[in-house]
From TrEMBL:
Biological source species: Streptomyces macrosporus
Top-level lineage group: Bacteria
The protein's name in its UniProt record: SpoIIE family protein phosphatase
Boundaries of every PPM-type phosphatase domain copy: 148-336
Membrane spanning residue stretches: none
Ranges in coiled-coil conformation: none
Amino acid sequence: MSRSSSTTEGLTDEIRIDHESAIHLAATAARDCALRWGLPGAMPDQAAVLASELAGNLVKHASDGTVYVQPFRLGTGVEILAVDRGPGIRDLDRAMADGYTTTTGSLGAGLGAVRRIAGEFAIRTRVGFGTVVCARLSPPGEPPSARWDTGSVCLPAKGERHCGDACAVAETGDALTGLVVDGLGHGLSAAEAARSALRSFRTAPDRPLVDILTSLHRSLRHTRGAAAGVLRLYPDRAEYCGIGNIRAVVLSDGDVLHRLAGQPGIVGWNVPTPRVRTVPLSSGATVALHSDGVESRWSHSPSPFLLRLPPPLLAAALAHGHRRTRDDATVLTVQAV
């Protein structure tokens, strides 16, 4: 049983669910996140219930399960993700019914209660592969964006309190613009570089991508530097501009269509003239942007199940199944709705 957390803005709280006592850790993490981000009334307790039910299902029925808790990247609210490596749910409709249980004497509310309480709910499962769940809570009148679906996971290296990775998204006119940054090395100095990049990005995320990267370069001159990738998503196309080891992967119709890598260099130290690559997108295409804390080989022979996951579930599945635990790891996934 383990839990990694930090006060770093936007960092994902990770709770490994390998014992019943981890259920309490997951519930506490969800309640704390909801309180920290100002969810009103009974919503922090509702967040705790969501995390408790999802963690309880992992304890009872799954193997290698993890719960991720974090604030929304786009909008106000809390997101709770649960992912495992199997055995999967054979009869999902039956499992979603309130009162269903496979354990004598258990309450059995489980997934049905999660779907009822959550403002947004998504689940995918495959026998032999596992199950991925996303439950979201947002304050009344502040739902997530209706134009874009996003997912993310941002985790420090194993044993580190500070995370040198970071990500952000912003609606910019008729587009969505996202950033993934990977501060060189680990620990506090890498985290300071990542925070400097976030501050620069947020001053004007609607600028041309080359201008954003140029501004990042200036703002990181007095840090150890970073790799950075900036993505601009339109309904019909994606633009990518990156320096260093941030990769972008375009998924559509159950296939990998494009793999985009950054130019050589270090933002804040030595940067070539940034170049923007533009690729067309079909309806429903998803773009995954990730640091090298996620193994790049995931995109070379991915399972059809993985390729068809919606953005929040895809981010959780990539972090859970393809993360290098010795490195900070970030995944940002985006899709036009």
